[in-house]
Amino acid sequence: MTTGETKNQLPKRERLYLKRDLERLFASGQSFIAYPLRVVYCSEPATDRASGVAILASAPKRRVRHAVDRNRIKRLIREVYRTRKTPLTERCALHGRCLHIGFMYVGNDLPTHGAIEKAMHKAVSQILQKTT
Predict the structure, then answer these.
(1) How many domains does the chain have?
(2) pLDDT (tens digit, 9 = 90+) per residue, 38-66?
(3) DSSP conformational letter for 132
(4) What's the CATH number where 117 sits?
(5) Is the CB of residue 115 less than 8 Å from the CB of residue 36?
(6) For 8-48, what is the HEC assignment?
(7) Rounded to an integer, what distance in angstroms lies between the CA atom of residue 7 and that of residue 4?
(8) Residue ranges making up the domain that contains 98
(9) Is residue 1 one of the residues assigned to a domain?
(10) Which intervals of the chain form a coiled coil (predicted)?
(11) pLDDT per residue as tens digits for the range 107-130
C-alpha cells in the first residue's frame, strides 16, 4: 500500500458495543434524518481509551421483520460507511476528538446500495459541518 491510501476496514475499536457508550450516545447525542437513516452523534475530547470514530448500525425489528433483511441493511450501512469514513477520521485526529455515531434505518422497504450511499454522503457532510 502506498502512502495516501487508506484501508477501508472496520475493526472492533471503530464499532460501538459497550452499553456505557451506547447510553451516553443516546442520552447526550444530537440527531438528524438523512433518509432512510436517522443519525445520532456525540463528540467528546479524545481519551487514552477512546479516540477516533466509532459507529453503530441498527435496523429495528418493528420496521424490518425478517432477520435476513435486518442483517442485510446493517451490512449495507457498515459497507458504505467504511468507504466514506476518511474525512471523519481525519477531522477527529486533527482536533483530538472522539466521535460516536449511530446509524438507524428508518425506512420501510429494503434499501438499495445507492440509497444508503446517498444518505451516508449527506450524513457525513452534515456531521462534518456541525462538529466544526
Answers:
(1) 1
(2) 999 999 888 766 668 999 999 999 999 99
(3) -
(4) 3.30.230.10
(5) yes
(6) CCCCHHHECCCHHHHHHHHHHCEEEEECCEEEEEEEEECCC
(7) 10
(8) 12-130
(9) no
(10) none
(11) 999 999 999 999 999 999 999 999
